[in-house]
UniProtKB/TrEMBL annotation:
Keywords: Membrane, Transmembrane, Transmembrane helix. The keyword Transmembrane helix applies. It comes from the Bacteria. InterPro entries: SLATT_2. The chain crosses the membrane at residues 62-84. Residues 1-13 have a biased composition (Polar residues). This is SLATT domain-containing protein. It comes from Pseudoduganella albidiflava.
Amino acid sequence: MPPTSGSQSSSHENLAGTGSYDAGTTAPAGLQEIYEALERKATEAMAWYASRQRAKKRGARYIRTAAILLGALTAIIPSVIAMMPERIFIMGEDMAVVRFNPVATITGVAAATAVLFDRFYGFSASWGRYIVTYQRIQQDLDDFRIGWRKQMLKLNSNMPPTDEQILAVYDFLAAFLRSVNDAVRAETEAWLTDFKSSVADIDKTVDGQRAAAANIAAGGAKGALSVVLADPEELDGARWTLQIDNRKEEVKTGQSTATIPMLDPGIYKLRVAGIRRGRPVAAEYPVCVTPGDVTTLKVDRLG
């Protein structure tokens, strides 16, 4: 974790003293000003990355936690639904258990959306980049403070210092400036690369969804199912129920036919149930729904 402002101050005091130089290590005024400006530039950059990485860390943790929980729910929900009974009796009423299978699809899409959201805004990636850049600048600054003391000792080893000695100090200062700028530039370039990659991935995902939607629209002709019950009047109250797969049960009273429209082509399990003289009766059938057609099923007798 990046140090707090207090720990940064302690590091400065340990490596460079309190800021007042002993005799024999005093820098010329111009060099001292450059040193202080470069030190300030580095500490300001570190403070920027320290504050930004905390916000990115919170965002990354919240979004990734949500994605993990939603992904777990996506895997658990189908198993929980499979363990539920198809029908239950409450106060003498035969009731179908409503199965929320689409919930797993919803949670799965939400988990994927959370991951895309994280990638687009770069919470996780930026968090890592900021920590690495902070530590790199911190290491360079520590080396810079120690190196500065060494440079001053060399510079004051003979008085007055030679031009070569002064130029060597300028080269030392310029090298530190380049190291800080290189660290910031590398982080910025990494951000740009990550951003372009995330945008490309999102565009690819959207294009895939559009293509899938177009295919469904082009070849998604629906079918329908018509159920004819031969003896509804023999049931108590002429009341019967109709359920296809795990969908919500439909209740019919006083009618012998029922139609379920807008079904995707495929094989379904149909359950017709009722109560005859106080006793539950039911029948189940596999039915095949074809696109653009109405499939008719005749139920002669329940039970």
